[in-house]
Amino acid sequence: MKWVFPLSTPHFNTYAAENKENLRKNSFTTHFFCYNKCASANLILIQLKVRLSKLHQHYLKQLLEDVQQGQKSPQEALERLRSLPYEDLDFAKVDHHRPLRQGFPEVIYCPGKTAEQIIAIMERLQEWPGNILATRASRETFQQVQQHFPQAAFNELSRTIVVQRDNNLYAPGTILVVSAGTADIPVAEEAAVTAELMGNRVETLYDVGVAGIHRLLDNSKKLYQASVITVVAGMEGALPSVVGGLVSCPIVAVPTSAGYGASFSGLAPLLAMLNSCAAGVSVVNIDNGFGGGYSASLINRVHSSSGEESMNSREVNPKG
Fold first, then answer.
1. Which terminus of the chain is more exposed, N or C, with fewer CB under 10 A?
2. Which segments of 92-215 are extended strands (E)?
3. How is residue 110 annotated by DSSP?
4. pLDDT, tens only, 129-170
5. How far apart are CA 161 and CA 141, in angstroms?
6. From CA 268, how far away is CA 273, in angstroms rounded?
7. Within 10 Å of residue 224's Cβ, how many Cβ atoms?
């Protein structure tokens, strides 16, 4: 096993030069104690602008305060930080730095990985705060994971394994996940689980496709109250365009492989969504519920942090 820690002064200077614009744009400020062998083995304080999840920001701040108050030695603090930005397990390089860059820990995609590899990655992720998510998992994989993580939960529909350690909401808005048909629910559930785990309030609205458009219109209040809507559809993939024509909030469209021969395993709805006449519809890959939920979460955080009331929310009938 190899530990990678490139934040000594020469490496950091290179990193800062290469990422100057990114560091300038990001919003939160934190402090890292870094062991600098080139400066008489003194601890130096580096002020680095990075976008942090609130949980990691609190954790690192507490770590530094413990050093300041003498409750932890500088060497102990270094040991906790030495796995930044990643930890090399040979078969995987676990990206511990991702929460600092993107606000959420690395997510494990299970297909192609052995249960032992998945467990090893999860064991490294649990050393840092935040939720752990593994997607496209089988029940057999979950049963092996559960022996090491008794608190892990398995969602049969979404095929996700979740270790939830952070229940905080990080955005006041609501993400609505809509499915066209019942056959689209597994992908929709993957989107919902992802968005919830990223600290969002999530509601679902299933089986409201265009073959019975009255079902969608009967739930228009939910559509108008959402900050972001993730729309999951197979077959001809028309539903995101319909929803996009009703609301002013962003739409994340997720095509699925549900459908008969001419749907080409999701290619037909993918192309239909890419050619949507409704403005504000963005499209992710076929069956990519994770991508739909993740994108909606990022939009919801930006939308909420702007402090502006959306036109969509103002359109709700005041009579309720």
1. C
2. 93-94, 108-109, 132-135, 153-155, 160-163, 174-179, 201-205
3. -
4. 789 999 999 999 999 999 999 999 999 999 999 999 888 888
5. 9
6. 9
7. 20
